[in-house]
Amino acid sequence: MQPEDAGLLKRFAANLPGAAFLYSEDGEGRQSIAFLNEGCEEVWGISTEELGADPGRLWAAVHPDDLERVAESAGESARDLGIWQCEFRITACDGKKKHILARGTPERRPDGGTTWLTFLFDVTARVETEARAETVTNHLHLANEAIPDGFAMFDAEERLIICNAPFRSFYGLEDDGSSVGMSFEDVLRHALEKGLFPEASGREAAWIEERLQTYRDGKSLLEERIGEMRWLRLIDRPTANGGRICIRIETTRTRVKQLELEHAAATDAATGLLNRRGLAERLASCGEWMEPGERLAILHLDLDNFKTINDAYGHDAGDFVLVEIAARLSANSDPSCVIARVGGDEFVIVQPMGSPETEAIRLAETYRTEITRPILFEGRVCQVGASIGVSFWDPTGDEAIHQCILDADTALLAGKRLGRNRTVVFAVAMRQQAVETANLAREIKEGLAEHRFVPFFQPQMEMPGGRVCGVETLVRWRRPDGSLLPASAFIEVARDTGLVGLIDRDMMRGSFDLLSELSAAGRPGLRLSLNFSSIQLRDPEIVEHLLDEALARGIEAERVNIEIVESTLLDDCSNNISANIRALADAGFRIELDDFGTGHTALASLREFPVHRIKIDRSLIRDIDSEPASRAITEGIFALCRKLGVEAIAEGVETAAEFQTLRGMGFRLFQGFYFSGPMPRDALVAWLAEQASNRRTG
User: Fold this and answer.
1) Does the pLDDT of residue 605 top 80, yes or no?
2) What is the separation of C-alpha 589 from the centre of its chain, rounded to a whole number of angstroms?
3) Rounded to 10 degrees, what is the CA torsion of 616, 620, 621, 627?
């Protein structure tokens, strides 16, 4: 190198930002440095004199892990005379760790060696910045993939920057990174092509528009079904640079649990049918599953004789019967039919149909036929019937569907009053009757609170001699206007509304009070006949309660006749009733069968129950003096009673001719208007005193 060239190189190198030097290796591999600028001292931390004197110190500073790679690249440059470029780490003399970018231009020496004009740059700051950026990127990637929910970032042009695996799976995106750069709209369309959002079927354009609007609003919370049984909560929030962060939280487990709870709340656990709540929810959306021109037939079905199954065989048998009935109803219904169990043994069936009345009646009769088929439970045959009330709802009419359900219930009650096991179609007149019944029930409740139900007493006579041997208690309702209503005017409504038990209780206490008063007044032999409803006889504590009330007033049990009508023995709870009847007899109370001769259980009752006395019904007594058939039947009953040792009393005697005819048959016990009608307590006391006086003076 000429002196002027060396001076020029020195001035040029002095202005370079890094290190510059001429590094040579001769043909024997000996190293030398012909020139170094001041930047070399800054890079290596040692003086140019020391470096020039010992070129090996350049190599000694290279990081041991990088040394082999640096040497190989330098050797390759020496062989090919190609530009030497390499990035490596060094440890400067002051102990600082640095990243160096080296670039050298080789020339062949006359001795076969190589000289490089070499430039070194300290790139530590850049490398560290890149390392930090890579670390942040790696952490972001790891965090992104570790997030269990779907996560994605879009830029201000709505292009996808990054997303994790859950987000890709929700929208059917590939894992190869090809989705990066897709617009949010393209992501939605891709998901639709994959069939991932079934609720968008048939309205894809509107669905995409709605989702884009939600995304751009950046405020809405939305839950949507994905696939068959998965749900997502969508959260889209704006970033400072105009992009969006999208979070997709899978709520399937919560939603499934919620659906299970909603299903349980709307479903009858025993039968799997809808319950009352489920029926209401189903009917609220009936417009969605009814065809144009259809009406709904509403069938309210109540099982007859179901309580007998529970009493006879236990509640397991009852549950089995309910499940079987539900299965039979479902098997005889088409898919559009809605079936619900709305009470213990009550079902409502709602069926859309075009010509409802005849078709509904046919369907109801099909149900009744299926229900009456025997059901086998653990070797025992369970038999039930069904009463069905039918009404119709027209969606174009003025009636609310809720009213039509009430109408079906009204028709059902009408059918049960007619004798059960039948289908009755609702008529408008029934609604007025139902209103009147509801009003009457309310008035009965008010009357009970005001103690307006009072006992009346009708004497029972013993012949010959005309002795008053007992009284029967008959309930009367004293209205606020002073009028009196007999039991026939209200007892059926009281029974249907569960109020008859309260009336019976008041009558029993009033009767015991009278009997106690009469005993204290010198009439200890007078008997009392109390009418017991099936509700009272179902009460498991009735025997104990009756004994307590009687003994509290000093009344012996044998002075009380418990009157039971034959229909009570056919009650759905007849097994429980039967046990109580026997328990009452064992406690000393006398069992009396009322209205004898009007029901088909009469003779069986005399054999099955501890009956002490029967009452021959008024239907046989009426005109017995002129009706040979009535006379023959009554004579037969009386003869049977004498053979069985059972007392017989003729009820409803109203004429002298009837009385004389019965006397001629041998009857000695009578009751009826021929002797006296029912009267209140004070009137009875006065009447008894008058009768006693007449007997003394007669």
Assistant:
1) no
2) 48
3) -150
Question: 421 and 303 in contact (C-beta within 8 Å)?
Answer: no
Residue with tokens 């109370």: 589
Tokens 């075009």 belong to residue: 354
- Angle at which helices 500-520 and 428-449 cross, to 10°: 40
**Better pLDDT: 90 or 149:** 90
Give Cα separations from 236 to 155, 324, 486 (angstroms).
13, 52, 75
Report phi then psi at 650, rounded to 5: -85, 120
CA distances 103 to 81, 87, 100, 248, 475, Å, are 13, 9, 10, 50, 122
Angle subtended by helix axes 184-193 and 204-217, to nearest 10: 140
Identify which of 294, 297, 321 has the alpha carbon closest to the alpha carbon of residue 307. 321
Q: What is the number of other CB atoms lying within 10 angstroms of the CB of residue 177?
A: 10
Write the burial class of residue 171 (CB in 10 Å: 0-12 exposed, 13-18 middle, 19+ buried). Answer: buried
What backbone phi and psi angles, to 5 degrees, belong to 179? -80, -20
> Can you tell me the distance from the alpha carbon of 375 to that of 317, in angstroms, rounded to the nearest whole number?
10
Give 549's contacts (C-beta < 8 A, 6+ positions apart): 508, 509, 512
The three-state secondary structure class of 571 is coil
CA 624 – CA 652 distance, rounded (Å): 11
The pLDDT, as a whole number, for residue 682 is 92
Which residue type occupies 547?
L
What's the confidence (pLDDT) of residue 295? 86
The 295-304 sheet, strands edge to edge: 338-341, 346-353, 295-304, 385-393, 423-425
d(CA 407, CA 394): 13
Q: What angle do CA 250, 255, 259 make, to 5 degrees?
A: 160
Contact 387, 277 (CB under 8 A): no
How would residue 121 be classed by pLDDT, with cut points 50, 70 and 90?
A: confident
CA-based nearest residue to 615, from 598, 601, 632: 598
**How far apart, in whole angstroms, are the C-alpha atoms of residue 574 and residue 593?**
15
Rounded Cα distance, 687 and 181, in Å: 109
Question: CA-CA distances (angstroms) from residue 526 to 436, 471, 540, 547, 613?
Answer: 40, 8, 28, 18, 16
**Bridge partners for 589 per DSSP:** none
pLDDT tens per residue across span 15-54: 567 888 888 999 888 999 888 888 888 888 888 888 888 8
Q: Which of 137-141, 299-303, 426-430 has the highest mean pLDDT?
A: 299-303
> Do residues 336 and 352 touch, judged by C-beta distance below 8 A?
yes
Report DSSP letters for 284-339, one per residue. HTHHHHPPTT-EEEEEEEEEESHHHHHHHH-HHHHHHHHHHHHHHHHHTS-TT-EE
In the DSSP assignment, the letter for residue 83 is P
d(CA 605, CA 592): 11
CB 339 within 8 A of CB 347: yes
Beta strands, E only, 342-466: 346-353, 375-377, 380-382, 385-393, 423-425, 453-462
pLDDT value for 129: 77
Owner of token pair 């969006």:
244
Instruction: Give the count of alpha carbons within 13 A of 581, CB side only.
Output: 27
Separation CA 101–CA 514 (nearest Å): 123
* C-alpha Rg value of the chain to the nearest Å: 52
